[in-house]
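Form 12-C: Joint structure prediction
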Amino acid sequence: MFPAAFEYQAPATLADALSLLKKHGDDAKVMAGGQSLIPLLKLRFARPELVVDIGRLPAMSSIKRDNGHVAIGALVRHVDVERSKDLEAWLPMMVEASHWIADPLVRNRGTVVGSICHADPSGDWGSVMLALGAELIAHSQSGERVIPIDGFFQGPFTTTLRADEVATGIRIPVSKGRSGGAYLKLERKVGDFASAAVAIHVEMDGNKIAKAGIGLTAVGPTNLKATAAEKALAGHEPTDQLIAEAARLAAQAAEPKGDIRGSAEYKKDVVRVFVQRGLHTALGRAKEGKA
Amino acid sequence: MKVSMKVNGAERGGDVEPRVLLVDFLRSNLRLTGTHIGCDTTSCGACTVLIDGEPVKSCTVLAVQAEGRSITTVEGLLEGGALSPIQDGFHQEHGLQCGFCTPGMMLVATALLERNPDPTDDQIRWAISGNICRCTGYMNIVKAIQHAAKARAEKPAAAAIAAGGE
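Section 2 - Result
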């Protein structure tokens, strides 16, 4: 299958990339690893006049920690997360989630930030970032813009990223106290999209949950943040009863559609069970004292 | 658009439209038809090649993205005219039936053993999880890769294969 014809540019600097986007606007599409965009081009769901390959831009492949954040560059691939000893220490939930992305060959090329900007409601990273309260960093000729991930997803494959912007990275706040996370995903086979998946993050203050983040995958028009469930947990000591209630609220927030992967009712219940299980796991991990 | 890359150790080039996929460049322009097209939708792994030593699906890479990179296809696995340990493993353990997935399986296995010379069965299964064998001959594929791991351990010199020309 061939994509429709397009022009291709692989700028060597961010300034060049931004100037191309300024000029071409909606007619241009940014590509990093291409693992979402190339299939769309081949199926001709996307027909840009220009593909701007940012794959050769310098200094975007790092995973760094600075000023209370973990900063992940736009060219960090799924496999880089999988193999990152730093992330294993700082944000093990990301490493846990990375194993579930597509398959090993796709993970060798696809990028975290590219996947987030693709905004597939079945994408895994969106939920992870919603749970962690991440912020996307975007650049345009007018400068830098910091976009909280909550609100970034507008609809299926639709975000608030502007046509003249390049997402150059994502940053994740590092919790001050003990914290724990978990990513649970149900997929029919390796490489299939999730039937449903949940990302869980908890931060502790003594015996109480200071803050909880819950992201839901493949059960709505976008990755969803289970806000009511998060609120129910914050400020309370976790009990089995509270966890069950939060799981119920998270399932209520899910808006799945029935399809070949399962009925809507089934997927909602998967969310309930996974949030319950994930909270127990995340709280257990937080207790083990990992910061 | 002019494109040039190293393919199996040799400098190769061509003039392609940006929309030409790496798999089509390899098969049609360079006549290296060992790289197969299976699903053409990033699902099956029949089109697997190594870019700078890492396995990727060449139906989901533009030829122009491979500019300046080092590509290894199944045609590049031979070592000095002899079968590589992976190729020999597939031969000895009957790691193929129809053979359609075999180039991809062997390239993934080659990259795996470069990173992890002594994998468990589980690690092998994990590594080949992006490659589909429609004959379902997975048992022998795993055995073939284990065979190769042992052969490499016994003969380390032969293990220095040109994965990505590195």
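Section 3 - Comments
Chain A has three domains: 7-52, 63-173, 179-287. The longest helix of chain A spans residues 264-287.
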